[in-house]
Design brief:
Helix content: 25-40%
Strand order of the largest sheet: 5-4-3-6-7-10-9-8
Structural class: alpha/beta
CATH topology of the largest domain: archaeoglobus fulgidus dsm 4304 fold
Oligomer: single chain
CATH superfamily of the largest domain: archaeoglobus fulgidus dsm 4304 superfamily
Strand content: 15-25%
Radius of gyration: 23 Å
Amino acid sequence: MGDVSARRAVDFGADVDRLLRQIPRDRFARVADVARALGDVRASLAVFRYVREHPDVPGASRVVAARGSPPPRAGTGTPFFLAFRGGAPLARLREEQRALAAKVSRRNGNRSLRTIGGVDVAYAGDRGFAALVVLRLPDLAVVEEVRVAHAVDFPYIPTYLAYREFPLIEAAFRRLREPPDVLLVDGHGQLHPLRCGIACAAGVQLDVPTIGVAKTPLVGSTSRHPKVGEAVPVRLGGSVSGYALRTGESIRPLYVSTGHRVSPRAAVRIVREVCVTRQPEPLRLADSLAREWKEAKEKGPKKVRNSLPSPEGNGP
C-alpha cells in the first residue's frame, strides 16, 4: 500500500457481485461465508449492507444473515453454498498492511515542534468530507484549514480503515501550503492487529510524523484503568504498542499510538499537551469542521430572496 493504487485495485462492489452471481438458484449463502470468500469474516456487516442496498444484483436475494439452517423456502436438508471462487482481495490487503508496517519508524522525526495538525473525516452516505486543521504551538492558534470531499467506494470494515479514508486524507494533505511538524489522525496507529492502522498508512505514505488517536480500543490489553492525566501501557503480543491516556474527568480514555516517526512516549506527551478538552484540540477542530461542512452540504445552498426594485413612483 505504498500508494493509493492498492485501494483502487480492490473494487468491493464488483468483488461482492462476482461472489453473489456464483450462488446457484436453488441454494442460499450466509453473509459471513460471502465475507470469508472475500478474505475476512470481519467484512460481514459490509456485505450485509451491500446486499441490502443492491437487491437487484443476481444472487442477492439468496443471501441470508441468520445462522443455522437455510430459510424455509429452501428444500429440506439443503446445505448452504460455500464453494465460492475468487481471489480473496481482503487477504491481499492484509499482506500489503504487513509490508507497510515494516516501514513504520518509532524514532522521533522532529526535535522541536512548531505546528501540529489534525485530520478527521465525516460521512454522508457514500460521500466523505475530510477536514485538516493545522495549529501553531504552543498557543494553538489556527494556521491553516483545508477541506476535501469526494465519493467513497470502499466500505467501513474493521482494521481496513486506511483503504476507506487515506485517499481523502492524502487529498487534504496535498493542499496544505506547508505540512505540519506532526499530524494527529483520528484512528489507530500501531494499536492494530497488523500494527498498521490508518495513522501508520498516512505517516509512511505521506512521509510525515503521525500519531494515532482513537476513542475506542481495537486490540491489546491494559493492566488497569488510567487515572485522570495518566497514561497506562496497552500491550499487544507481549510488547507495549500504545497507551490508554485519560485526559480529563471522563472515564473514557483515548488510545494513543505511534503512526510513523514518533516514539510511543513522545506521542503521549504531544497529545496530552494539546488537550484543552478530552479530545486533542487539532482533532476536535477537524471533527467540528468536517461535520459542519457535511451538514451544510446536506442542507444545500441557502435560498436567497431576490430584492426587486420598487415600481417607479412607489419607491422611497
